[in-house]
Amino acid sequence: MEAAAKRTAESPLARRLKSRHLQMIAIGGSIGTGLFVNSGKALSSGGPASLLIAFGIIGCMVFTVVHALGELAVLFPVAGSFSTYSTRFIDPAWGFAMGWNYGLQWLVVFPLELVAASMTIEYWNSPVNKAVWVTIFWVCIVLINFFGVKGYGEAEFVFSMIKVVAVIGFIGFKGLCSVFVTAAFAFSGTELVGLAAAETANPRKSLPSAVKQVFWRITLFYIVALTLVGLLVPYNNSHLLGSSSVDATASPFVIAIQNAGIKGLPSVMNVVIMIAVLSVGNSSVYGCSRTLASLGDMGLAPRIFAYIDREGRPLAGIIVTSLFGLLAYVATSDAEGDVFNWLLALSGLSSIFTWGSVCLCHILFRRAWKVQGHSTDEIPFKAQAGVIGSYIGLAINILVLIAQFWIAVWPTGGTPNAVDFFQAYLAAPVVIVCYVGYKIYARTSFVRPSEADLVTGRREVDVATLIEEIRLQKEELRAKPWYYRTYKFWC
Questions:
Q1: How many domains does the chain have?
Q2: Single pTM value for the model
Q3: Which residue among 6, 300, 440, 470 has the highest number of C-beta atoms inside a 10 angstrom radius?
Q4: Which residue from 144, 142, 183 is spatially nearest to 324, judged by alpha carbons?
Q5: CB atoms within 10 A of CB 446
Q6: What is the pLDDT of residue 439?
């Protein structure tokens, strides 16, 4: 494990992501079909009140998760992030399970999003076969990722900028409203900021600001935008009921614009939805290839995945993810719906396990940090919600898993059956099998706080200099107006 930790800390991944890349990935990286399309499906099935409660709970949880992850990533900007922290602070077997859980999530999301992108084209009644669109989208995303982390960063900067402008433009199109609605899983992908830490030129300066952007994403791009949706689109709208999860005509944003009678704008919004889908597909290749690379470094996957070329690209991971994306050609078959649903089932709960694991890692890291005689003054960036926030985040994740289990066993409007159960809860058995199987095979044990590795991969910090810098920053901040202090707290 010491050798594995050293390999992830000294990964030859290129450190080419700049602050502006992280900022835009943080703000717009996870804005996709969860906001633009699935929010309408959630509105029709749950109603405004249920979704207000769900959004509030998940939004608070995501806030604590990202800050906990930011604290760990600034101090330990190592390859693999989530699985590496789980291995180091919880249990190597849990690190194995979390690594493969996250890798599989993005592996299946790639073909899933390619299918979704091809389906958005149907909005214009395109006579071109879906296979042609799948090929075009597949080639574009693969080429972007073969340009390395700089290619991914620049593409996501542009994609996220378009999505942010589109959401802001939508908020300008109608007045203030009072209904909060969204789908809980629209936040999936938020954790990519932490994964990108290993490829960031200066994580000490770039990550804290990027992590704080999650507040603005939750407030501006979810609460405000979906408040408008709740006001402008009735929950019993016929286009929402019985709609496909990726049918652009079912997007509440498109429906709201159509109801306003603004010609041409619905097509513009559909283009944004397609770009959002491709953005998630782009992120899936990045996320899966980097996770596979870290698993290879730790000996938890074939060593070929650990190979990084001279340009800092994990070629084996990119190739495998790209090849799996060819599964998207199922879009041309009659089995499209079934395959889509099962791919969705594999990735559905993955983020909940990832987020819960991040919170637990942060709790155990702080405990180990204290036990081994360190002070919190030595931590360059501290989570705003502290350890209490991570306890709250972990509890919410567990409650969500329990609630989802209840829904899986007793589906709404139906009777218990195997198909509904596994389509709602398939990720859980996969994680359990990975964890138990590896624990039996490798005979791992839980990591004791006194034995946790707090050295390998840690960015060395001159404690005295750090404390003095923080003191001077606080003094300078006190002299500023209240609105500037408020801005810096959240940014």
A1: 2
A2: 0.79
A3: 300
A4: 142
A5: 12
A6: 94
